[in-house]
Amino acid sequence: MKSIKNFVAVAALSVMSFGAFAQSVTASSSTIDGAEAKIAAQAHQAGASYKITEATVNNVVHMTAELSK
Fold first, then answer.
1. Which of 2, 4, 7, 19 has its CA 20 to 30 A from that of 55?
2. By 3-state DSSP, what share of the chain in percent is helix, strand and coil, each rounded to 5?
3. What is the DSSP string of 27-57?
4. What are the YdgH/BhsA/McbA-like domain coordinates in residue numbering (predicted)?
5. Cα 25 vs. chain centroid, distance in angstroms?
6. 26, 45, 58, 67 from 62: Cα distances, Å
């Protein structure tokens, strides 16, 4: 019974930490620096930091980032 309570408590805490604030944002630009600047502006507006998770370069740069507080 004690191990079940511990498991439930750990599961609840892990859900709270991930659910507290996680937002994915995207930006496109003709350069990598331009796309990152757009991501940085979105993060600044949300009062969050960002971590780039994906960037694709074809004719334009498409970048995805995760914002976190």
1. 19
2. 50, 35, 15
3. EEESSHHHHHHHHHHHHHHHT-EEEEEEEEE
4. 24-67
5. 7
6. 7, 20, 8, 16
Degrees, nearest 5: CA angle 20-21-24 = 150
Q: Which two tokens stand for residue 65?
A: 């980032």
Give the model confidence (pLDDT) of 19-62 as tens digits: 556 899 999 999 999 999 999 999 999 999 999 999 999 999 99
Q: Which residues pair with 52 in a beta bridge?
A: 65
CB-CB neighbours of 67 under 10 Å: 19
